[in-house]
Amino acid sequence: MTIDKSWTTIRRRGSSNEFWNGLQHFLQMAKPFVNDRGFIKFPCRRCLNNASHQLEDLESHIFRNGFMFGYNQWIHHGEPATGNAGTTVAGPSGGIHERDEMFDVLDDIISEDADEDAVGGPSSNDQYDGLFAALRSELYPGVSSFSSLNFLVKLMHLKVLNKWTNKSFDELLKLAFLKIDLVESHYEAKKLMTKMGLGYSSIHVCKNDCALFWKENSLKDTCPVCSESRWKLQSGKQSGKNVPHKVLRYFPVGPRLKRLFATSKTAKLMRWHSTGKSKDNDVMRHPVDGKSWQEFDKRHPQFAGDVRNVRLGLAADRFNPFGNMSLSYSMWPVVLTTYNLPPWICMKAEYLMLSLLIPGPQSPGKDMDVFLRPLIDELKELWVHGLDTRDAASENSVFRMRAALLWTVNDFPARSSLSGWSGQGYRACPTCNEDTPSMRVIGKTAYFGHRRFLPTNHHWRSNLQFDGRTERKRPPRKFSTTDILEQLRRVKTGIPGKHPSYGGVKRKRGDDELNWRKKNIFYELPYWATIELKHNLDVMHTEKNV
After folding, report:
1. HSE, side-chain direction, 13 A CA sphere, residue 8
2. Helix, strand, coil: what percent of the chain each, to 5?
3. E strands along 101-183, which residues?
4. Are 498 and 367 a contacting pair, CB within 8 Å?
5. Of 252, 253, 420, nearest to 337 (Cα)?
6. Which among 42, 249, 269, 313 counts the fewest CB atoms within 10 Å?
7. Which residue stretches of 163-277 are H helix?
8. How far apart are CA 204 and CA 218, in angstroms?
């Protein structure tokens, strides 16, 4: 019986039983032909039979990179050099063992690296070899459909759902799974999960929030602004691992956006803002129906030309990670939401992306821009260059995905930290700007003039019961982008941080600076100045406080 080689041309490898069974048959066929060192030629699209590696890595190479083109007679892997080298319809009637469901997961993760002809060449990254080793490892002898990797992923999920401590997870592994080929600790499990694209970057921060020890500062031991040490002083210890004062956790956005296009279901939903939006101009059920979105599309037609380009919103607020404990500590998660998705999905927890976890114990305040630096740099890259992304809804074609941040959504104090316009004082209103009507009442600042927003003929305008006067003023003027940029040009650049001799020194604002404390970091995005609605107050606080 001749050999079936048709499986070598299948593109969607993870979801194909035919590919899996054919690959297992090929591995069994090639096993007797390793050399005396245990090496064999690899016929993947990366190695092209020019490189030899250990046989145990052959499966992951072919699965990740695909089977090389033109290798129709497997002379290096057990097929005689004579005879018909073409593909046939006969072949293995069944796999070596049942295909584990984690193959579909890995296929979604590494599919961009596997599509050589689409992206321009196969990946040279060997980070997935450990995953395939865990995937080949049986949970118990004879249980071939449920691998150690599959079990570990589900166990880690249970840990999160039930709030197990790291120590309890380690003890469970030692007590209950002695005979299972599994990781030995939670630390090893996290390292394995990182290879699946579920990791983050740890960035050290100055104790006074002056700067990040990142990029050009990554090797420094002292802050470039205040010269404070990067490390905590450990009393009584002569040597050991240095411990940083603060650690910022950064979760890269690009890989998570690419994951949304890796499956056909979510890839189709990423077009909803174009295909499913309301056709009634008087109805707004999604931000795409709003003026700000439409004006953005008019100003950036090239970006709007591909409906798969991603529109993002940013939300940040503080919370106490210690629950109801009486500890004065606050952390700031920075979360992104994807507005390409329909309204009943884009705000669900599973579609929200945590991008930054800003450490405490104090709020960043005016130094919020220091912590936003990694995210802003990536957003600039996503706007200017984009990422090659495989679209599962378009026959796995590859397109250049770009992304834009449309606005932020916060409560009023967080808005002040992000926008740079102080929410205190006589000019606290960011809409009225320098025209904010206010006065001092019993030691507090009061804001009045709300009747200005009513129609000119409204009877409340002439009612004297509000403040004893009639209201004849028109609504506050709308400040243009040019007006705002001119105001920001007059703002002096301050020193970041909270060190009492540097950024912590209070500086009195000049009258020409109005309520601006800084020109926020979002203006580094090439399109930010053109956005009509930059900062929003979330509905919960608006309804609660009105």
Report:
1. 22
2. 40, 15, 50
3. none
4. yes
5. 253
6. 249
7. 166-176, 186-193, 254-260, 264-269, 272-275
8. 8
Give the tokens for residue 21: 């069974």
Name the pairing type of β-strands 353-358 and 246-250.
antiparallel
Rounded CA separation 286/83 (Å): 63
Strands 212-213 and 201-205: antiparallel
Which of 21, 18, 69, 25 is CA-nearest to residue 43? 69
Within 10 angstroms of residue 352's Cβ, the number of other Cβ atoms is 16
- 285: tokens are 């059920």
State the DSSP code for 490: T
pLDDT computed for residue 111 by the predictor: 56
Return d(Cα 441, Cα 427) in angstroms, integer: 15
The neighbour count for residue 89, using CB atoms within 10 Å, is 7
Taking a C-beta distance cutoff of 8 angstroms, is the pair 292, 137 a contact? no
Say if CB 266 and CB 351 are below 8 A apart. no
Question: Both tokens of residue 440?
Answer: 């001092």
Residue with tokens 């590494």: 110
Among all chains, which residue has been given the structure tokens 């995005």? 525
87 phi and psi, to 5 degrees? Answer: -80, 150
How far apart are the C-alpha atoms of 316 and 88, rounded to whole Å? 59
Count how many residues are written for the chain: 546
pLDDT digits (tens), the chain, 546 positions: 467 777 877 766 666 777 878 888 888 888 887 877 778 888 887 777 767 777 777 877 787 777 877 677 777 777 775 544 433 333 333 333 455 567 666 666 665 444 433 344 434 445 666 676 776 676 777 666 677 788 888 888 888 888 899 999 888 888 877 666 678 888 888 888 777 776 789 999 999 999 999 999 999 999 999 999 999 886 655 566 889 999 999 999 998 998 888 888 899 999 999 988 877 777 888 899 999 999 999 999 999 999 999 999 999 988 888 766 656 788 899 999 999 999 999 888 889 999 999 998 888 988 999 999 999 999 999 999 999 888 888 877 889 999 999 999 998 889 999 999 988 888 888 888 888 888 888 888 888 888 888 998 999 999 888 878 898 888 888 898 899 999 999 998 888 988 888 887 887 888 888 889 999 999 999 999 999 999 998 877 666 555
Output b/e per residue, 203-234; b: 16+ Cβ within 10 A. bbbbbbbbbbbbeebeeeeebebbebebeeee
Q: How far apart are CA 410 and CA 429, in angstroms?
A: 15
At position 224, the amino acid (one-letter code) is P
Beta carbons within 8 Å of 443's beta carbon, 6+ residues apart: none
Q: Which long-range contacts (CB under 8 A, 24 or more apart) does 361-366 make?
A: 361/328, 361/329, 361/330, 362/209, 362/330, 362/498, 363/318, 363/330, 363/332, 363/417, 364/209, 364/332, 364/417, 365/417, 365/498, 366/417, 366/420, 366/494, 366/496, 366/517, 366/518
